[in-house]
Q: What sequence folds into this?
């Protein structure tokens, strides 16, 4: 955690003295508003302040869609999965998007350029299927249009990455039941 | 208060839940999420009964009784509801009972059979979730989890650790650690209480059975085994005997049939621990060392104190646990004496504990890149091993463990119960300080299943104040008192599991409080009828000091039998 973030955390926690459990969600909201996401450090510090184990805070935070655990990308893509957009094929748009960026909703690409968030309705049903990128609306997003939009973002960021190939032929691959091995504890 | 249950009049007490009253009457209502003595959650609904006048079915585990209540426990409506609940649980459950370690001991499996579920009526998507193999002690398979929450509650309410909780929402809910990381980097202390209470195969131990079988078959290896005090009084349950039966002799005979070259009794090093730890206590008291001294036998507790109370680490005894003392002696003294290359020795230990699997892999617990103990088997895994090799335990003639680490006193044996270490230590500390034996060797105040026990004992001029806690939730209460400045105590015994090793995370599956009581009684019966009941009278321990170690707390002891622990950073 950077010094600046750390001071911000201190200020937020100072404004919630004591350790009443009903302050947990407001604190989480304030931290996310200031830092953009809930980092591991932030959760541990909130836990220490409130005397709540990190697992419990993570449990509460994952219950709600509003909390994220990775920083947003430089281009935050919000994709509408409301009824009208669904009828106009937003499921396919989402599939194209996740495949092109190789991340799931709620995640951020490794280069930090893109993040995806699925929302219930953007209130722009006439423009369906609709997405927003950093708050700017884009109507009637076809697969080719989506590829073009992502390319434009990349150019804006000055990235030298090659244009995204949108592959719509292959079936979505399912992750198998592989064992998870993490670093051994000392 | 009177109830009418299935047309019969039944007495009830106010404040009872329906389930309490029914079980007193011998009416079994199935449960999944229910845990005796803990706040009911009513999460699984499998215990529903029909109550006349109630709008729907009522969960027996959480609904209080009322006078005149008319209850149907096994009406068609109730049975139908229960079966549907099980069928829905099965709809996303993997169909792999044949490959599941809990098969035959699985509550979900037996419920499904009891309720006559014979075909799949709801075809749901099977859960595909990654297994967590990161912990040296515990394997988590979230695909088999039915979200009953027993593990979450035992971790929080009994152990005060809260390494896991419900994460996510709706059909994506799962039990996981903070940030869904591996258990190995979480605050999990590897106690395995979650395994013992888990009704399915979602939580099992990291098994070493195959590795031990391979070592036994390797002619280039010299495989020795040690067994913990609490194993001989619980292993019988794995073979269908009543709890509380001690089969020490048959177990030793089974070890020989399995092909172990030597069989050692960890109770021997428990006696040795008393000599070292007792001397350490006397030294701390007489030279103004850090007090109270806290025991260090229980590896779950050690990880707990490293994470949550690092400032109290100077209070923790520097003695290794009996398992690790034995391991160190086998690959040093024993190897030298028998002229065996320690690299050829495979040291196996059978423990009532899953945290011991973690302990034997700690960097403090070996020398020259060689662990002192290679594999740890739980009581359950030993049962498995004996069955795999087709050994009929009831047909075996009792045998005795091998020298030089085979003799034990019952002071070492009672290590298996909460309060045992304290009792054994007080018996020997009395002699160390005054030169005389305690008049009455029974220190009853520290026995039993209570969470925290305290006593004081006059030893010479000193009034020794001792406290015993079992279950880390209880240990936490005591540690908070120390943190707040409590200063009167001299010696504290902590056991990770509630009741001590007899209720360890490696013991037979189930939440049977009566079984734990019976195992404890078996240990004290052995102690009550024994001739030698004090560790300092163990002749082999005395010989070991004469031939090899020198004296308690001497340089050789320090090299092999003592260690230091450090603060551990985990996601708390």
A:
């Amino acid at each position: 955690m950077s010094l600046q973030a750390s001071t911000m955390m201190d200020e937020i926690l100072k404004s919630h003295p004591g350790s009443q459990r009903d302050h947990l969600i407001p604190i989480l909201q304030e931290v996310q508003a200031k830092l953009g996401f809930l980092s591991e450090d932030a959760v541990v510090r909130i836990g220490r302040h409130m005397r709540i184990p990190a697992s419990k805070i993570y449990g509460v935070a994952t219950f709600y869609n509003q909390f994220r655990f990775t920083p947003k990308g430089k281009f935050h893509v919000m994709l509408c999965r409301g009824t009208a957009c669904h009828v106009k094929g937003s499921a396919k748009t989402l599939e194209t998007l996740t495949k092109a960026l190789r991340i799931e909703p709620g995640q951020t690409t490794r280069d930090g350029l893109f993040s995806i968030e699925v929302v219930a309705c953007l209130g722009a049903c006439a423009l369906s299927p609709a997405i927003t990128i950093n708050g700017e609306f884009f109507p009637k997003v076809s697969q080719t249009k989506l590829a073009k939009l992502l390319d434009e973002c990349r150019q804006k960021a000055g990235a030298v990455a090659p244009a995204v190939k949108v592959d719509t032929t292959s079936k979505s691959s399912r992750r198998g039941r592989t064992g998870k091995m993490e670093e051994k504890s000392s | 208060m009177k109830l009418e249950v299935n047309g019969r009049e039944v007495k009830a007490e106010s404040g009872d839940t329906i389930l309490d009253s029914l079980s007193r009457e011998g009416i079994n209502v199935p449960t999944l999420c229910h845990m005796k003595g803990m706040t009911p959650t009513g999460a699984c609904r499998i215990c529903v009964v029909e109550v006349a006048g109630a709008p729907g079915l009522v969960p027996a585990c959480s609904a209080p009784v009322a006078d005149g209540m008319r209850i149907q426990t096994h009406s068609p409506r109730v049975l139908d509801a229960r079966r549907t609940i099980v069928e829905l649980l099965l709809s996303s459950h993997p169909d792999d009972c044949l490959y599941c370690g809990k098969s035959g001991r699985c509550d979900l499996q037996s419920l499904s059979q009891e309720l006559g579920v014979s075909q799949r009526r709801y075809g749901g998507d099977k859960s595909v979730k990654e297994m967590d193999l990161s912990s040296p002690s515990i394997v988590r398979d979230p695909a088999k989890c039915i979200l009953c929450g027993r593990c979450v509650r035992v971790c929080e309410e009994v152990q005060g650790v809260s390494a896991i909780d419900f994460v996510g929402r709706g059909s994506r809910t799962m039990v996981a650690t903070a940030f869904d990381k591996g258990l190995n980097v979480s605050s999990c202390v590897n106690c395995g209480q979650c395994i013992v209470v888990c009704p399915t195969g979602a939580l099992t131990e990291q098994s070493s059975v195959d590795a031990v079988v391979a070592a036994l078959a390797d002619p280039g290896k010299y495989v020795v085994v040690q067994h913990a005090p609490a194993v001989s009084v619980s292993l019988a349950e794995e073979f269908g005997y009543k709890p509380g039966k001690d089969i020490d002799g048959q177990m030793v005979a089974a070890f020989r049939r399995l092909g172990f070259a030597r069989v050692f009794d960890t109770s021997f090093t428990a006696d040795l621990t008393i000599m070292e730890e007792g001397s350490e206590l006397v030294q701390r008291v007489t030279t103004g060392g850090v007090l109270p001294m806290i025991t260090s036998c229980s590896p779950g507790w050690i990880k707990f104190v490293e994470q949550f109370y690092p400032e109290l680490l100077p209070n923790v005894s520097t003695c290794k646990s009996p398992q690790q003392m034995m391991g160190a002696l086998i690959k040093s003294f024993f190897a030298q004496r028998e002229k065996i290359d320690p690299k050829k020795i495979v040291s196996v230990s059978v423990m009532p504990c899953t945290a011991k699997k973690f302990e034997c892999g700690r960097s403090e617990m070996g020398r020259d890149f060689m662990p002192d103990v290679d594999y740890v088997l739980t009581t359950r895994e030993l049962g498995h091993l004996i069955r795999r090799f087709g050994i009929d335990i009831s047909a075996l003639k009792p045998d005795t463990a091998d020298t030089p680490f085979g003799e034990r006193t019952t002071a070492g044996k009672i290590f298996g119960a909460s309060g045992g270490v304290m009792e054994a230590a007080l018996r020997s500390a009395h002699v160390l300080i005054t030169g005389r034996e305690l008049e009455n060797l029974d220190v009853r105040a520290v026995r039993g299943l209570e969470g925290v026990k305290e006593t004081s004992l006059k030893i010479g001029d000193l009034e020794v104040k001792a406290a015993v806690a079992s279950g880390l939730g209880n240990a936490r209460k005591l540690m908070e008192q120390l943190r707040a400045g409590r200063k009167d105590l001299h010696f504290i015994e902590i056991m990770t599991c509630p009741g001590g090793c007899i209720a360890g995370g490696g013991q037979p599956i189930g939440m049977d409080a009566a079984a734990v009581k019976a195992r404890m009684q078996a240990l004290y019966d052995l102690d009550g009828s024994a001739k030698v009941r004090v560790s300092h009278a163990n002749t082999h321990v005395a010989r070991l000091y004469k031939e090899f170690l020198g004296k308690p707390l001497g340089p050789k002891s320090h090299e092999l039998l003592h260690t230091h622990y450090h603060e551990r950073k985990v996601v708390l």
